[in-house]
């Protein structure tokens, strides 16, 4: 009985490339969990057959996941998926194949193993029952289930550090913008006022009977252009929506307002540039 299962992402690789990768690891049976059924992909089936590789559709077992096994965001919930009758049936079929001596690879369309169902759900389950799981990478080399998890953790930590750095940069920019506006005679009314996710106002100030809704954009350099360029059409729509919400909540219907953006290139606490832009107004 074989105790190893491979996984592979079809992606944009050619059929011959896929077959070469499978052959190099002795795979003679591919479990296809894509939404494309085998009878709709006869070319691939014939090519695998000619190469001595059996191609089986496991879409019903592993490909289709009902809503009851997903969370409110449409993400798969591992503890729910592995309890599905279809999933259990698929695992039984897989075990029978292994007992018969087949060297099996699970195939989907996802080239990114870090977000793939074949790793996050199927690979996790197989590993939990003592079956070795090896992912075949794009160059044909193998990445173990454990090593994949290590890389996922490293990737997550790198993303967190990058996000933390971006948050710190943004906070520094907002503090600088608020300080400069106060020096110009503005009174700070609110910071990071949030109507709902995506519709946030960085700073809200008042000066000479006028409200100012201020969007602060901060970058560490101008390699990607002025920070002001980050305010795209979608962001403008979000700002406009948030302004309407703020005016409604605090009954500022009859107070004139202006929309301002502050572009900051922040290199250090003592080395930065700041520019102010007014690009909208209301109630005038």
Report on the structure:
With 284 residues, the chain is α/β, with parallel strands linked by helices. The protein folds into 2 domains: 4-155, 3-Layer(aba) Sandwich (Cobalt-precorrin-4 Transmethylase, domain 1); 166-282, Trna Endonuclease, Chain: A, domain 1. Helix content is 39%, strand content 28%. The protein contains 8 helices and 11 strands. It has helices at 15-24, 42-50, 59-63, 78-81, 85-99, 117-128, 145-183, 233-250; strands at residues 4-9, 29-32, 54-57, 104-108, 132-136, 142-144, 187-196, 199-207, 210-219, 257-268, 271-282. The strands form 2 sheets. Strands 3-2-4-1-5-6 form a 6-stranded mixed beta sheet. A 5-stranded mixed beta sheet has the order 7-8-9-10-11. The longest helix has 39 residues, at 145-183. The chain is elongated. The model has no long low-confidence stretch (mean pLDDT 87).
Descriptors for this entry?
284 residues; alpha/beta; Cobalt-precorrin-4 Transmethylase, domain 1; Trna Endonuclease, Chain: A, domain 1; six-stranded mixed sheet; five-stranded mixed sheet; 8 helices; 11 strands; elongated
Short overview:
With 284 residues, this protein is α/β, with parallel strands linked by helices.
């Amino acid at each position: 009985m074989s105790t190893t299962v491979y996984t592979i992402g079809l992606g944009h690789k050619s059929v011959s490339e896929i077959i070469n990768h499978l052959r190099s690891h002795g795979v003679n049976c591919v479990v296809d969990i894509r939404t494309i059924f085998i009878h709709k992909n006869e070319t691939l089936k014939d090519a695998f057959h000619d190469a001595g590789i059996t191609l089986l559709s496991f879409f019903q077992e592993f490909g289709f996941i009902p809503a009851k096994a997903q969370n409110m965001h449409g993400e798969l919930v591992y503890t729910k998926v592995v309890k599905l009758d279809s999933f259990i049936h698929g695992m039984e079929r897989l075990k029978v194949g292994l007992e018969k001596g087949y060297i099996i690879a699970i195939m989907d369309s996802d080239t990114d193993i870090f977000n793939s169902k074949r790793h996050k759900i199927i690979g996790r389950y197989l590993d939990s029952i003592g079956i070795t799981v090896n992912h075949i990478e794009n160059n044909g080399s193998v990445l173990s289930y454990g090593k994949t998890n290590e890389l996922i953790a490293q990737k997550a930590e790198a993303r967190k550090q990058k996000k933390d750095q971006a948050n710190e940069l943004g906070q520094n920019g907002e503090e600088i913008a608020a300080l400069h506006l106060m020096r110009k005679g503005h009174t700070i009314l609110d910071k990071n006022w949030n109507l709902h996710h995506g519709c946030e106002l960085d700073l809200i100030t008042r000066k000479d009977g006028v409200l100012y809704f201020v969007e602060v954009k901060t970058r560490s350099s101008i390699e990607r252009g002025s920070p002001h360029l980050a305010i795209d059409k979608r962001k403008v729509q979000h700002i406009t929506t948030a302004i309407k919400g703020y005016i409604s909540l605090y009954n500022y219907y009859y107070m004139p307002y202006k929309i301002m953006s502050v572009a900051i290139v922040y290199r250090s606490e003592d080395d930065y540039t700041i520019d102010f832009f007014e690009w909208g107004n209301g109630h005038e």
